[in-house]
Amino acid sequence: MEPTLPCVYRDGSRYLKTYEYFHKCSTEHQGMVDFFNNHLPDIMSSAINDNSVQNVIGFGCGSGPLDLDMFSAIHRKYPKVTVDYEVVDPTVQFINQYKDLLSKTSGFDYIKWNWTQLTVQEFEKENKERTKKADMIHMFQSLYYVKEPGPMVSFLQSLLSKNGKLLISLVSGDCGWAQLEKKYFREISNWEECCSFSDDIRRYLDAKGQLYQTYVVPCQIDVTECFIEGDENGGLLLDFLTEVLNFNQTAPPELRAEVLELLRDPKNSVESNGRIMLGSEYEVIVVDQLI
How far is CA 164 from the centre of its chain? Predict the structure, then answer.
């Protein structure tokens, strides 16, 4: 069937509310921080030399907290390294929140910040002839809505320095959240893009014979409030998970019932201490320069 329900991304203020509440319910941030602390410094060792300047590009950085944790983990091991960092995000509200966070946070004077308000697709169009190479490019969920993520990966690989690393973080195609997206995305979300998962990227890299490493980031989303009739926060979270604006009000009752059933399916979530925790594992895929 043709998608008929309005997409939450069409309402910027509503989307920001859903995004913020999602992060309150998700363990994603702590999972990524653990990855940064336990793996990232070693991953970047071949690209980093003491006293060197590291050129870094970040896509989909949101309001900045995850970036600061990432750079902190690198700086603890490589304290003499300075960073020339280009933040790329299409949402002006996120960029402003990021700048506000920096104004209230100390300890990052070793980073030169540059701000670019573009989608990843727009960035590609404007940087086809880019000569400045990056020692690290990271993408937190930014490939999720790229129609052809494979060629985008190859483009970003072409921007890497000799020992540079491309870090792609995406939801695992096997987790509970992905099952919701795969079953209902095209049916219910009136949005022209398509969703990509980590397994889509791995298949592309395998077909191209590209070497890569993968790291699983355990993550869960507390979806308990979604099952409370009339709960405002549950409504925000359902909007984010289904990508439908005001899902509780706009979705037919039978569709809402199906979505809630899927969220509570033991294959997709676990119930513990009265809470319903939806599986939302991430994979970080680390890719080298294009060969």
Answer: 20
